Amino acid sequence: MRLADRLHEHVQGLRRFALVLTRDPTQAEDLVQETLTKAIAAAHTWQPGTELRPWLFRILHNTHVSGLRKAKVRAEAAPDLPEPVAGDTQLASVELRQVLEALDRLPEAQRKPIVLVALQEMSYAEAARSLDVPLGTFMSRLGRGRAALRNLLGEMRRGKLNLIA
Amino acid sequence: MTRPPRSDTDFDPELMAYADGQLGPEEAAAVEARLAEDPAARDLVTALSLQSAQIRAAAEALDTAPVSLKTAALERELARSLAREGWRARLAGPGLRRIAASVMLFAAGWGGHMAWDATNTPYPGYVAEALGAHQVFAQDVIRPVEFRAEATEEALDWVAAKLDRKLEHPALDPLGLELVGTRMLGTREGPMAQFIYEDADGHRLSLIVAPHPEGVREAPLRYASVDDLRVGYWRDARLDYAVMAQTSELQIEAVAQEVASLMGNGS
Known about the structure:
The complex is a heterodimer. By secondary structure, chain A is mainly α. Chain A has seven helices and no strands.
C-alpha cells in the first residue's frame, strides 16, 4: 500500500482512538491535529522501514498526557468553577454508552491499553511501544483494566450503578 | 461499593491473548481445546471479545464528523515529510545504483556541498525532499497542485516572492510535457517550488526549484535512480534544481537541459 494511503488509515485510527479518549469531537480533532503537527516536526526521528503506527500513536499518547497535565493545572488554578459536563456523546445505544462510561471510570493507565487493543488490532508489543511502557507492564495493566471493566459493566447491567439516568 | 471477588480466570493472560487474536495457530488451537472443557474460560473469552467489539462500535458511532480540511492538509504534509525520510534512507542505501554524470551542463565542479544533509547521504538534502514531494503530490489525482496551469503567472509571482528569486515560466511543451500546476512547499531545507507536468499518456514528472545561499558553487547535472524513479539534479548560481519521473535517463537529461536553458536566463 502507498505511504499516503497507509498514513490515511492510521490517521483515521488516531481519530477514533482520540474520540473514545475524549468523547468530544472537537477535542478529538484538536488532539489529532496537534499529533500530526508534532509528527511533521519529528518526521526525521521515524526510521523508514519500521512500523509507522506505533510511532504515531506514541506521539498522540504523549500529546494527550501533556494535555491532561495542563488541564489539571488549569483545574487546580480555578477550584471554584464547576466541573465541565462531559461531552454529550449522543450515542443511541445504551450498551455503547455504558461501555464508554465504564471506561471513563478506569485509571488512565488501564483505559488506554484496552482502547488501543480494541480499536487497532495491534500486537501487544506494538501497543506497548505506542504507550511507551514495557510489554510486561502493558500486559498487566491491560489484564487488570479488562477485569475491572468487566466488573463495572456487570454492576451497571445489574443496576447497582446508575450512571446513565 | 463491594466488588465480587476476582477469580484467577479474570487475569488469565492466555485467554486474553486468545480473545485479542494475538496467538499463532498452534497456541490458539491449544486454547480452543481448553475452552471446550472449561465453561468459565469460555464466558471470559466471550466477555472480552464483546468488550472490544463494543468499544469498536462506540468509536464508529462517535466518528460522524466530516474530515476537517486542516487535518487533511496536515496529513498530506506529514505524508510528504515521511516520504522524504524514506527517500533519504533509500538514497543512502547500499542498493543504490549511482549513475555517472554523462553530460556536464555546467563547467563548475561538484564541490561546495555546504547545504548537504548531515545524515551522510551523498546527495544534497533537497533531493530527498523533492522525491518526497513527487511521491505524494505528483501521484495525487484529486488535488496535486495549489495553482492550476491557467494560473501559472499568478503562481510564478507567488513562488518568486516565497523563494526570493525571479523565475521564468518553465514551459516544457516542446518536449510534450504539459504543466498540470504548481505547488509551494515548506521543507526542512527551506522553501521549494514544485511544478508538476504530464505527458500524453498521463505520466507525471516533477520539477523542483529551490534557492540556495549565495556563494554556493554551481554543480553539474547528476543522476540517481531509486526503484523505478529517476532523478536528475543540478545547481546554478541562483537555484537548486531536481527533475524526476519514472522514465529514462535520456528523457531526464532532455528535460534538465530545457529547464536549464529557460531558467538560466532568468537572473
